[in-house]
Amino acid sequence: MSLPADYHMHTPLCHHATGEPTELAVQAVRNGLKEIGFSDHNPMARDDFDDWRMAAADLDGYVAKVEQARREHPNLVIKLALEVDYLPGYEDWIRELAARHPWDYFIGSVHYLSEAWAIDNPAQISEWKNREPMEVWTAYFERLTMAADSGLFDIIGHADLCKKFCFYPKQDCAPLFTRFLQAAKRGGVAVELNTAGLRKDCKEIYPCPRIVHLAAQAGVPITFGSDAHAPGEVGMNFAEAVQLARSAGYTHYCRFTGRKREDVKI
What is the dihedral of CA 74, 75, 76, 77, to 10 degrees? Predict the structure, then answer.
């Protein structure tokens, strides 16, 4: 089976990943991938915002490392991208980052529900215990919907990250999913099938099969990403992700060049 492009990979600049871009590229070739994309965590205007992203001064070096990987692996298509946190009020900063380099795509992700709480941070898991899961899921999907509507992103990353630690609402979340997917459809934004969820407590691809099926019904395009933080994770569990996509009715995924989308058969 020909594997789709892996569009979600990190580098040591984010302080919680190992393997330089050229090392991840070696693994991609070994795994039979024809195309990959680096999308490390974006810098923030304040370097002390948190401790799990590159500093602003690292951005040019990040681009240089990706370009080095391109030179060393001419038979592998390598895209240049960022995973960009969406926080209301930071839109101008995101636009400034977008203008700095010839990016192929931006993955918009929601990690923070406030500047003080990243919902997927194991060090802050106690915050979950002070809230009803539905309250958190509602706030998360509202912010994800804003991200999809913002016009700032090409792809939405790990679209139900709120399930990571298995704090599930008792209520039906379908209305939250539907509003988000309607925004993605309006904006022509893709949703990634992110296999990292299989390596987390939830043991499930992001997003869940229900969201993937709803996305297919709504005509929302998809990409694939391993969210690799080490060479061994490149393309991990892609066979399962492709099976999920096909079971929902997808026949194509999309690739990006210079932030322009192109559909490709799975």
Answer: 80
Indicate the length of the chain as a whole number: 266
Scored b (16 or more CB within 10 A) or e, 9-28 reads bbbbbbeebebbbbbbbbbb
Cα–Cα distance for residue pair 233/36, rounded to 1 Å: 13
Inter-axis angle of helices 174-187 and 209-218, to 10 degrees? 40
| Nearest-10 crossing angle of helices 21-30, 59-72 | 40
Residue 242 near residue 3 (C-beta atoms within 8 A):
yes
Beta-carbon contacts of 236 under 8 Å, excluding residues fewer than 6 positions away, are 195, 198, 199, 226, 228
pLDDT surpassing 90 at residue 2: no
| Confidence bin at 171 (pLDDT 50/70/90) | very high
Residue 1 predicted with pLDDT over 70:
no
What are the tokens at 99? 């203008």
Distance in angstroms (rounded) separating the CA atoms of residues 145 and 203: 24
Q: Phi first, then psi: what are they for 123, rounded to 5°? A: -70, -15
Write out pLDDT tens, residues 173-209: 999 999 999 999 999 999 999 999 999 999 999 999 9
